[in-house]
C-alpha cells in the first residue's frame, strides 16, 4: 500500500507540473494559443518615427512558418530578459522625458511601455531569437488605456512580455484586448488582430 501511495503521489505531482508548464498549452491543441492576424493596418506614429531614425530595425525579412519550440532554455531566457528590463528601466512618460508624445526609442534608465518592448526585442534577437518572432503589439487595458507589449511567436503559442508583469504569459491568458502588431514578415508593417483599431500607447501605468 505504501508503494502504491508513493506512486500515486509521484504521478499526481508530475501531472500538476505538466499542467502548469507553458508547454502544456500546445499539447492541448487549443486554437487560442496563436493570435489570428488579418489585413494590414496603420503603423503607430511613434514606430514610424523610430523607423525613420533606425532604418535597419524596420526591414522586411524571411519568416519561419514553424517558429522554434518553447524549450526550457528559451523559456528561461524570456523570463530573465523580461524581469531584467522591468527591473532596470524606470517607467516614465514620453512627455516627461522628451517633452513630446509617442517618442519610441531604446531606453537607458527610463522609458515608456513601448521603450521596454524595443529593448526586450533587441536583447532577445541577440540571444538567438528570430526577428520575425519578436513583434511589438498594441493592446488595450481593461480601463481603456492603450499599452504596448512584446509578442514572442513560438511553436507552442504566442507569449507576451510586459513591463507591468514579470510573469511571461500566453497571450490569451492576459487581461488585454489585442488590437494590432508588427507583421512577422516586415518589421515596418503592421497587421490587425481581430477587429482592433488605432489608439495611442503612451501609458506607463
Explain what you see.
With 205 residues, this protein is of the alpha+beta class. The chain has a single domain, classed as Roll (C8orf32 fold). It is 34% helix and 25% strand. The protein contains six helices and nine strands, in the order ααβααβαβαββββββ. It has helices at 2-20, 23-28, 45-53, 72-88, 94-98, 113-125; strands at residues 37-41, 90-91, 110-111, 134-140, 146-154, 157-162, 165-170, 177-183, 186-193. The strands form two sheets. The chain has a seven-stranded antiparallel beta sheet. Strand 2, helix 5 (94-98) and strand 3 form a beta-alpha-beta unit. Helix 4 (72-88) packs across helix 6 (113-125).
Short description:
This protein has 205 residues and is of the alpha+beta class. The chain has one domain: C8orf32 fold (Roll).
Mean pLDDT: 85
CATH class placement: Alpha Beta
Q: What would the principal axes of the Cα set say about the shape?
A: globular
How many domain modules? 1
Number of strands: 9
N to C succession of SSEs: HHEHHEHEHEEEEEE
Assembly type of the shown chains?
A: single chain
Pfam family, one: Peptidase_C93
Keywords: Signal
Protein name: Transglutaminase
Signal peptide: 1-26
Task: Jot down its keywords.
205 residues, two-stranded parallel sheet, Transglutaminase, Transglutaminase-like_Cys_pept, globular, 9 strands, signal, C8orf32 fold
Amino acid at each position: 500500500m505504501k508503494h502504491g501511495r508513493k506512486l500515486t503521489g509521484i504521478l499526481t505531482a508530475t501531472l500538476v507540473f505538466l499542467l502548469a508548464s507553458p508547454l502544456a498549452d500546445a499539447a492541448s491543441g487549443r486554437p487560442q494559443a496563436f493570435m489570428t492576424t488579418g489585413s494590414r493596418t496603420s503603423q503607430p506614429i511613434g514606430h514610424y518615427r523610430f523607423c525613420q531614425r533606425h532604418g535597419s530595425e524596420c526591414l522586411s525579412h524571411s519568416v519561419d512558418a514553424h517558429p522554434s519550440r518553447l524549450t526550457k532554455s528559451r523559456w528561461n531566457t524570456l523570463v530573465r530578459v523580461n524581469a531584467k528590463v522591468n527591473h532596470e528601466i524606470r517607467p516614465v512618460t514620453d512627455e516627461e522625458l522628451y517633452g513630446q508624445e509617442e517618442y519610441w526609442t531604446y531606453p537607458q534608465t527610463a522609458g515608456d511601455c513601448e521603450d521596454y518592448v524595443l529593448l526586450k526585442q533587441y536583447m532577445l534577437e541577440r540571444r538567438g531569437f528570430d526577428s520575425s518572432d519578436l513583434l511589438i503589439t498594441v493592446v488595450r487595458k481593461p480601463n481603456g488605456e492603450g499599452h504596448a507589449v512584446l509578442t514572442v511567436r513560438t511553436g507552442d503559442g504566442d507569449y507576451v512580455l510586459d513591463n507591468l508583469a514579470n510573469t511571461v504569459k500566453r497571450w490569451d491568458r492576459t487581461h488585454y484586448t489585442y488590437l494590432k502588431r508588427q507583421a512577422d514578415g516586415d518589421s515596418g508593417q503592421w497587421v490587425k488582430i481581430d477587429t482592433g483599431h488605432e489608439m495611442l500607447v503612451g501609458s506607463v501605468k
